[in-house]
Every structure is written in C-alpha cells, then in structure tokens.
Specification:
This protein has 71 residues and is an all-alpha fold. The chain has three helices and no strands.
Length: 71
C-alpha cells in the first residue's frame, strides 16, 4: 500500500504538470483535467487513510511473532 501511495502521488504530480503545459496551449484542455486531478488526489487520500488506520495491510511483518508447532 505504501508503494501505491507513492505511485498515486507521482501520478497526481504528472497530471498537474500536464495541466500546466496544456494551459499554455489551450485553457479548456487544462480545465477538463481538473476532475481527473481531483479524483487522483482523493484516491491518494483514501490510500493514506487506509495505511494509517490499518498499518499491517502494508504486508510488512510488524509483530515479529514466530509460529511454533509442538508435537
């Protein structure tokens, strides 16, 4: 989940850069990307909240417990 958060943040930055470059050429093209930017920021926020509320969902072993089987 941590890597997904980094990926979504990177995607949001790239969308913002694309919007800036599109704004120079055609303003309407940049304005039409606003919902996409908003959606990606919302997805990043959801991902962050899931990571904060459920830290073991990251896949990393946090307890250090060892499974022991007695015969």
């Amino acid at each position: 989940i941590t890597y997904a958060l980094y990926l979504i943040v990177g995607l949001s930055v790239m969308i913002l850069i694309t919007m800036i470059l599109f704004f120079r050429v055609r303003k309407l093209a940049a304005v039409l990307l606003i919902p996409y930017l908003a959606w990606s920021i919302f997805a990043a926020y959801l991902n962050y909240e899931i990571l904060e509320l459920n830290p073991e969902a990251d896949g990393a072993e946090t307890t250090g417990a060892v499974q022991r089987i007695e015969v």
